[in-house]
Amino acid sequence: MAGFALLAVAVLSTGCAAQTDPDDAASTGSAPASASTTASAPAGSSDPAGSSSSAATATEEAEGTPFPGDTQADVADAVDPDGLTVTAVRAASHDGFDRVVFELSGSGTPGWRVEYVDAPTAQGSGAAIDVPGAAYLAVSLQGTSYPYDSGAEEVARGAVPVSGTDVVQGVFYDATFEGVSAAVIGTADQAPFRVYSLTGPSRVVVEVATAG
């Protein structure tokens, strides 16, 4: 009996190994996750509500598997948003994809709609947005708050510094208007992409494939 108990403990310890948080990971092709981080399923999956992203814990993908995304619009509903203001936007290159992360204050998860558009325009005014790239991913985060309501400092409207990426050519943050925080990701072409959310802190992650 003692030998069986020791074996059971060893198996449980192996299964509880922590996974890697996407913002801290080195350039790898694995899906980001951590033991304390909840993420929505990669774009391309479906749920009863018709969203291309359903709540699930992100699991590490096998090396060499095809990028789990496509070029179709990715939509998800907000979940208990409270004081969500975009406080940071960053982009980085990884093995097989470029990643753009939108970090938010507050709690809950914003909704989103991410899709390719012909010509990016500013919300509210409709003015043209100038961002490098031959294709444009419009990002709309729903359920967000103005900084004077949340008490958080919002990212300044304008171009976000981007360097060292491949398919992502530029990012423009368009600020918040009537509960929607918008941005445009300029890409080299209409490459497949996926979107998912993380908590602790709240983040929305957009990954764009750099290889077929």
From TrEMBL:
Q: Which UniProt keywords apply?
A: Signal
Q: What is the name listed in the Swiss-Prot or TrEMBL entry for this protein?
A: AMIN-like domain-containing protein
Q: Which stretches does UniProt call biased (Low complexity)?
A: 25-59
- Write down the InterPro entries for this protein, in alphabetical order: AMIN-like
| Domain AMIN-like per the UniProt entry, residue ranges | 85-209
Secretion signal span: 1-18
Question: Can you tell which superkingdom this protein's organism belongs to?
Answer: Bacteria
Which organism does this sequence originate in?
Answer: Modestobacter italicus (strain DSM 44449 / CECT 9708 / BC 501)
Ranges for region Disordered = 18-77
What Pfam families is this protein classified in?
Answer: AMIN-like (PF24837)
